[in-house]
Amino acid sequence: MTTRYIEPGAPWQNPFAESFNARVRDELLNREEFSCLTEARVLAEDWRQAFTGEYPHSALGYRSPAAFAAAWSAPAA
């Protein structure tokens, strides 16, 4: 395994970062109009909490991270 060089200013060379950036743009930045920096921070944190805790992810079998973590922490029957 080797580290792959990604040129500065070329995020399209990293599909994971580009996918995440597109999601942030589509779901947060293009839908909101911020009146101040504090409001932007609060709405961004709300979105981050929802994204990391509630949204289903394909890598987790289309379960939310919270549901995935609960399944792993449940005692084996």
Low-confidence stretches: none
**How much helical structure, as a percent, in the residues?**
40-55%
Compressed to H and E, one letter per element, the order equals: HHH
Query: How would a textbook summarize the main sheet?
Result: none
SS strand fraction: under 5%
Mean pLDDT: 82
Radius of gyration: 17 Å
Query: Which class do the helix and strand fractions yield?
Result: mainly alpha
Straight-line distance between termini: 38 Å
Number of strands: 0
- Coarse shape: flat
Number of helices: 3
Give the SSE layout.
Elements: H1 15-29, H2 37-53, H3 65-73
What does this entry look like structurally?
The protein has helices at 15-29, 37-53, 65-73. The chain contains three helices and no strands. The model has no long low-confidence stretch (mean pLDDT 82). Helix content is 53%, strand content 0%. It is an all-alpha fold and 77 residues long. The longest helix is centred in the middle third of the chain and has 17 residues, at 37-53.
Quickly describe the structure.
By secondary structure, the protein is mainly α.
